[in-house]
Amino acid sequence: MAEALVLERIKQLSLREIDLPQDLGPGDVRIRTEVVGICGSDVHYYLHGRIGPFVVREPMVLGHEAAGIVVEVGTEVADLKAGDRVCVEPGVPDFSSRAARLGLYNLDPSLSFWATPPIHGCLTPEVVHPANLCFKLPHNVTAAQGAMVEPLAVCIQAATKAQISPGDKAVVLGAGPIGLMQALAALASGCSEVFIFDPLDNKLALAARYDGVTPLYSRNGPPAEQISDATLGWGADVVFECSGASAAFRGIADLLRPGGVSWHRRSAAAWRYTCCRRHANRSGCGGYRQPSGQRDHPADNLSLCQCLRPRDQPAGQWPNQFGPAHHRHILVCRQHSGF
After folding, report:
1. By C-alpha distance, which of 3, 62, 85, 71 is closest to 32?
2. 338 DSSP assignment
3. Domain with 127 in it: what CATH number?
4. Domain count of the chain?
5. Between 203 and which of 102, 175, 240, 276 could a Cys-Cys bridge form, CB atoms 3.0 to 4.6 Å apart?
6. For residue range 113-149, what is the model confidence (pLDDT) as tens digits?
7. Residues pairing with 40 in the sheet
C-alpha cells in the first residue's frame, strides 16, 4: 500500500494509503517523485468528475506531470541508473500497435495515461514506469522545471506541426501557463513575434515580461482589429487557441492571414465558413511524441532555464504568477516529510 492524493469523488480529496501497482518489470524504473504539476485536467476531474468519455467511477490518484529521482532499475534497463534525475512521459502505448509502428505511438487507441480513468496518477511518493518513457534532466534544469516538460512538450508538438517558418507572426489565445509556454515554443520555432490575448490583464502583464511576446489588451479593441493594425491588414500566420473557452472561437478566423493555420483543443463550427473561404488549415493538438528514431526529449533540445524564465527573473527563481490556482496550472512540491 502506498500513500497518495486520492480523488474519492467530485470535490472530495484525501491523503491516504491505496493499493497501487509497484511491481518492477525488467524494463521499468522506480522513481521517487520530487515535483508533480497540477494540470487543468486534474482540476476538471476534481470539479466535474469527467472529461469527455473519461469518467471517474472509483477513487483515482491524480497527477501526470512528474519529475523525480530514479531509485531502482529493472534488469534490462541500460540507459538509466539509481540517482538519475528524470522527467516522465505519462502516456504508455502498446509499442507493437499499428499506431506505434507508424511512428504515431501517442495516438495508440490502447494508450494508458496517468490520472485518466481508470489509470492512477503520480501524486504519490514513488511510481514505477517504463524506462524508455523517462528522460534524464540536464544539470541546469530543476525538478520544478522538469515537471513542466510534459506540458511544454505539447506546446512544442503544436509549434512543430504548425510548420512555422522563420519570421512568422503568431497569435496565442489564453495567457495561462499553457498559453505562455505556447508563445515561447512558437518563438523558439522561428516566429519573429507572438501576440497573446487574455481578458485578464494580470496574465498579460506576465506575458509582457518575455522578449518577442506582445500582449493584446481588451481595452485596445477586439484582437482581430489589433492584429490587422499590427500586420498591415494581412493577419497572423498561425493562431494557437490555448484557453479552451468557447468564447475564444468567436472571430478566431479573422485573426488569420489567407492560408493561415489555426491550432486548438476544441471543435467549433461557427467559423468554418470563414476558414474555408480563406483556405485556412484547422488542426488540433492533444499530446506529443518523440521524433521517430530519436531518443531526444524537449528537456534535451531546449534550455528550460532560458526558455521559461522572464528576462527580468533571477536564475533559479520562478515568477509568482505561475503559482496561483486561477492560472489552471500550479506546481506542488513534495517535501521529505510528505506532500
Report:
1. 71
2. B
3. 3.90.180.10
4. 2
5. 175
6. 999 999 999 999 999 999 999 999 999 999 999 999 9
7. none
